[in-house]
Structure formats: structure tokens, C-alpha cells
Q: What sequence folds into this?
């Protein structure tokens, strides 16, 4: 009974983060579903092997490793357009402007540009950027999850931000509004 309660708690707490991270990494809804399901199975099978307080790190490390496995198994990269998931939308949309169609169109266009720019980042930079900026992980959590030094996490995050800045440098707000 206690195992089931712990499992339910973990699933409720992390299922959206697992799925959104998988979706960003794999860019394919079906693969993201598969990874999410596999992580949930591994959580159940390993409930007694990890500390509940360290579960977040273990779960995201497992998710990252499964995503990398899926990416390695792919022989042909096919670019697919994915709908912007709820986490991305909640993070970047401005809800108070949604009544104005002009602002709504501008917000949707910008979200699509940002999403596209994030997808263009190399896998190592993208995974750290998503964990930090979108999922709200701390440096230490990312370091443990991805099994890399904390300074490497900081450097990769800085590189990801700089690439995104270069991508949007030519964008002028006055042209759109």
C-alpha cells in the first residue's frame, strides 16, 4: 500500500515534466509517450532502490538517458512540427493580452519562433536550457540529473542563451507591433 501511494505521488508530481522534457528532446509525440511510459515503469520497478527525496534527480536522469537512447537509435532525422505543449505555453504566454487579437497573434508568432530556436540548439545545450528555463531546475539538480559538473551546466546554459540571443538579435519589436 505504501509503495502505491509513493508511486502515485511521484507520477502526479513529475509526469508533466517527464513528458515535456521528452517531447522537447525527441521532437516526436509518440516517442515522448514511449519514454514517459518507460520512465513510469522504471519508477515502479525501482521504488525501493532510491530515496523519495532524491526522486526528482533520479527520474530526470532516467528520462534524459532514455531520450538519448531514442536519439541514438534513430537512423533518419525527420523534422516534425509539434504543437506547443502546455508547459511552454504557460511559461512564455502573456495571458492578460489574450483578449486583443493583435497581441494574441504576436504572442503566438513569438512562441513559435522561440520554440523553433530552442529546437535548433545542439542536444547538450537544449537539454540544459529546457531543464533550467522551462522546467525550473536548479544548477545542482541539473548537474546530478545529467551527471556533469555544475560548472559545465553553467557554461552550457550560457552558451544556449548566447545562441538564442544571436538568433533573435535581428528581430525588431517595432516591425511586428
A:
Amino acid at each position: 500500500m505504501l509503495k502505491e501511494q509513493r508511486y502515485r505521488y511521484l507520477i502526479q508530481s513529475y509526469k508533466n515534466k517527464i513528458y515535456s522534457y521528452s517531447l522537447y528532446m525527441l521532437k516526436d509525440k509518440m516517442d515522448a509517450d514511449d519514454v514517459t511510459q518507460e520512465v513510469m515503469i522504471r519508477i515502479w520497478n525501482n521504488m525501493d532502490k532510491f530515496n523519495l527525496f532524491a526522486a526528482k534527480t533520479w527520474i530526470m536522469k532516467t528520462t534524459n538517458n532514455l531520450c538519448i537512447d531514442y536519439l541514438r537509435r534513430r537512423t533518419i532525422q525527420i523534422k516534425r512540427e509539434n504543437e506547443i505543449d502546455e508547459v511552454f505555453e504557460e511559461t512564455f504566454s502573456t495571458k492578460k493580452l489574450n483578449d486583443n487579437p493583435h497581441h494574441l497573434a504576436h504572442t503566438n508568432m513569438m512562441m513559435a519562433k522561440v520554440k523553433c530556436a530552442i529546437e535548433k540548439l545542439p542536444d547538450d545545450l537544449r537539454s540544459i536550457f529546457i531543464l533550467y528555463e522551462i522546467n525550473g531546475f536548479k544548477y545542482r539538480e541539473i548537474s546530478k540529473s545529467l551527471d556533469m559538473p555544475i560548472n559545465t551546466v553553467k557554461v552550457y546554459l550560457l552558451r544556449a542563451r548566447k545562441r538564442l540571443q544571436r538568433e533573435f538579435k535581428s528581430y525588431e519589436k517595432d516591425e511586428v507591433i
Residues 75-84 have pLDDT under 50 and may be disordered.
